[in-house]
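User: structure tokens for this one?
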Amino acid sequence: MGTGLLRDRGLPNETESQLLERARNGDRAAVKEIYDRYSGYLAATCSRFLPDPRDQKDALQESFVKIFSSLDSFDYRGEGSLKAWMRRVLVNECLKVLRGMRRGVPIVFEESIRDVAEEEDTDPPDIDKVPAQAIHEMIQSLPEGYRTVLNLYAMESKSHKEIAGLLGISENTSASQLHRARTILARMIKEYKEKSR
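Assistant:
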């Protein structure tokens, strides 16, 4: 069996560029393969930003509409670039939801900045023996502002300047939100570990 036949069937060993090329040429099987290959990854990313399953579903659906309608204009830059671009589209869609463009209730950021030195300064918590799902649930339970900044900083590798631009807040507010998110998360992890003893 030749490799061309494998590619025509859209098997998992097909490269991103091959899949993209087929999708751009109108191959519906390739479009389905892109969805099947990346929807779980994007859904997990989405759930970090949006705890409400309805918001997750809406953001994911809207992201795929934008992704598939923009494939022709996407600038492919090597293996992994399609996945990275799809993630950026999704994160931007999640931020739209959080900014209240869909729900009518905007995300709230605390603008009054207390001196972060007055807050409990914690060492990074030891997360050994804490299941990933438990940590995910702790992050989801954070207030929206804290959770959003934490995700953008820690998971999307955004600087405070970039976060400030994305969310329409000051860099100091971004730094403060991150510090508070980490403090609360460290406390939750400590409590979880104490209960698990």
